[in-house]
UniProtKB/TrEMBL annotation:
<dbReference type="GO" id="GO:0006817">
    <property type="term" value="P:phosphate ion transport"/>
</dbReference>
<dbReference type="GO" id="GO:0000155">
    <property type="term" value="F:phosphorelay sensor kinase activity"/>
</dbReference>
<dbReference type="GO" id="GO:0016036">
    <property type="term" value="P:cellular response to phosphate starvation"/>
</dbReference>
<keyword id="KW-0597">Phosphoprotein</keyword>
<comment type="function">
    <text>Member of the two-component regulatory system PhoR/PhoB involved in the phosphate regulon genes expression. PhoR may function as a membrane-associated protein kinase that phosphorylates PhoB in response to environmental signals.</text>
</comment>
<keyword id="KW-0067">ATP-binding</keyword>
<dbReference type="GO" id="GO:0005886">
    <property type="term" value="C:plasma membrane"/>
</dbReference>
<keyword id="KW-0813">Transport</keyword>
<dbReference type="GO" id="GO:0005524">
    <property type="term" value="F:ATP binding"/>
</dbReference>
<keyword id="KW-0592">Phosphate transport</keyword>
<keyword id="KW-0902">Two-component regulatory system</keyword>
<protein>
    <recommendedName>
        <fullName>Phosphate regulon sensor protein PhoR</fullName>
        <ecNumber>2.7.13.3</ecNumber>
    </recommendedName>
</protein>
<keyword id="KW-0808">Transferase</keyword>
<keyword id="KW-1003">Cell membrane</keyword>
<keyword id="KW-0472">Membrane</keyword>
<keyword id="KW-0812">Transmembrane</keyword>
<feature type="domain" description="Histidine kinase">
    <location>
        <begin position="41"/>
        <end position="253"/>
    </location>
</feature>
């Protein structure tokens, strides 16, 4: 078929024998496309009514009807949450259909400074936050998408670490490239959940996630952004001990800071 999709596996046996298994996955691919379009269209359609509702809720003054003040507060919180879910779904749809990213220098020193400020603003003095940068390298990729991915990991660390915990943001060299990591001393994640964390809306505890203001889409966004940069996400975590989320970038994604040279 002209627009068909094939999935092929080549098996090798002894004495030079080969077996090629080809499966026609055109219907699956089309179904996936329909799902993507549907999510993108619904999210897009929800955007305007939500903006209107949110706008009117902001206009209402709780002092006019004091007995409704708690209700109004909750409506504002929930409409903001819904707005964030819609924005995250739109971001995911955009990332899923994107095949290439802009290849720009992403200076790491200012980005790490911004990430520290974001962590401090979210934490409001409840955690000890440290930043260590020894990689002496900038990244090559999309500044906007990389900021969103790296900042998602920081926000998760703050949201899933109780008061008094520590959060360490690091940018270091490793064999074959460099690694950006965010370590926390928070709740941690049981091993059984680790493989599914980057699925849309997958949560270890929905009540904790909801309380902490999450949309359940953050790690899916991180994974998509990293894929577009040929980078890998690793998660090391244990309940009660904390978690380390690390993004591993290959050396082809690294630039000497200050000049255009590849490392
Ligand atoms: P959410 O918006 O729910 O935080 P994410 O996709 O960012 O969605 O994360 C998915 C789930 O992974 C979270 O609901 C939480 O259970 C778990 N998680 C993510 N980061 C951490 C962390 N640093 N510590 C403990 N659990 C985490």
């Amino acid at each position: 078929r002209p627009d068909g999709h094939l999935n092929a596996t080549l098996l090798a046996f002894g004495r030079g024998q080969r077996l090629l298994i080809a499966r026609d996955i055109s219907d699956l691919a089309r179904l996936e496309q329909v799902r993507r379009d549907f999510v993108a269209n619904v999210s897009h359609e929800l955007r305007t009514p939500l903006t209107v509702i949110h706008g009117y809720l902001e206009l209402l003054d709780p002092e006019d009807v004091p007995e409704l003040a708690p209700v109004l507060g909750e409506m504002r919180t929930q409409s903001k949450r819904m707005g964030q879910i819609v924005e995250d779904l739109l971001t995911l749809s955009r990332l899923e259909t994107q095949e290439r990213i802009t290849e720009e220098r992403v200076p790491m020193a200012p980005l790490l400074a911004t990430l520290r400020k974001e962590a401090e603003a979210l934490s409001q003095g409840r955690h000890r936050i440290s930043v260590e940068s020894t990689a002496a390298a900038d990244l090559l990729g999309s500044p906007k998408e990389l900021h969103s991915a790296l900042s998602n990991l920081v926000s998760n660390a703050v949201r899933y670490t109780p008061t008094g915990g520590e959060i360490s943001i690091r940018w270091r060299r490793e064999p074959g490239g460099a690694v950006y990591s965010v370590a926390d001393t928070g709740y941690g994640i049981p091993a059984a959940h680790l493989a599914r964390l980057t699925e849309r809306f997958y949560r270890v505890s929905s009540s904790r996630s909801r309380e902490s203001g999450g949309t359940g889409l953050g790690l899916s966004i991180v994974k998509h952004v990293l894929n577009l940069h040929q980078a890998r996400l690793t998660i090391d975590s244990a309940p009660g001990r904390g978690s380390t989320f690390a993004c591993h970038f290959g050396s082809e994604r690294l630039l000497e800071p200050g000049n255009g040279e590849e490392i």
